[in-house]
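hey m, so remember when u said the tokens were messed up on ur end? i reran from scratch. heres the input so u can diff it against urs
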Amino acid sequence: RAQGDSAGALDALRRTLEVRERLAALDPSNTAWQRNLSTGQMAVADVLRSRGEWDEARRLYDQALAARGRLAVDDPNNTANQAGIAAAHVGLGETCRLQQDWNGALDHYRRAFEIRRGLAERDPSNAGWQEGSAAAKNRIGMILLARGDVARARGAFEDARVTMEALLARNPDNTLWQTHRAAAQQGLGAVLVAEGRPTDALQAYETACATRERFAAQDPDNTVWLFERARCLLGRSAARAAAGDSPAAATDRRDALAGFEDLMARDPSNAEWRMLRDEARAYLAAPAPAPPEP
């Protein structure tokens, strides 16, 4: 999936899901087969979501959530079952976000966070649970900001940043943790733009974009990292525009657009890439602001 080719991935995953559906139907009491079924449903839903087939994605996420809920009832102390429920809520939240269903997205993200926070409290030494709760906080912050709740968004992003800083103090080279910290920094940058503090926002974006640029350069075929780089540049352009640096803002927007165009050439079906590409195009097509009075 990091390489694109969603059509081929979808076809293969659907064939796998068909096999798992048959096995699960043969023995509904077999927990391993039920768990494999929910994993297959999640995998197909992930690809459908990326392609913009959101109704079908939500249907499969709902099925996976129901299956994982039943597994959790049968074995409430199994942390993998709890983590699976949280992952299904994240998938539903992401789908709602892309549909601009902010209330639905926030509800699912919060449910995922509560589960992950509970897991982290049960085992404070488990860095994975800490990382998962921070990732959920970043998503919550994104939706709060979209709804205009800037103060609460700041709190969510700051909580995520603090958690990731603590984890990175243990292992500074962890790639996943660095990306989550960059997401928190990007979120804080967007909050600072909304608060009318473009200089501080630009500082946050510079730090985040440095991480995104480094990872994209390390693996130029990783479409996840290329997407995050382009999205960070688009955010930084807003901070530069708010700071009055229109030429630098336009440069960031052109670079972001080039990144999204490259991604779309690899997988034209990806809905989120297309949405942000169109946003970058609209920014560049908009007339430049008039210069200030002398």
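this time it looks ok to me. Confidence is low (pLDDT under 50) at residues 289-294. if urs says something different then somethings off w ur setup not the seq
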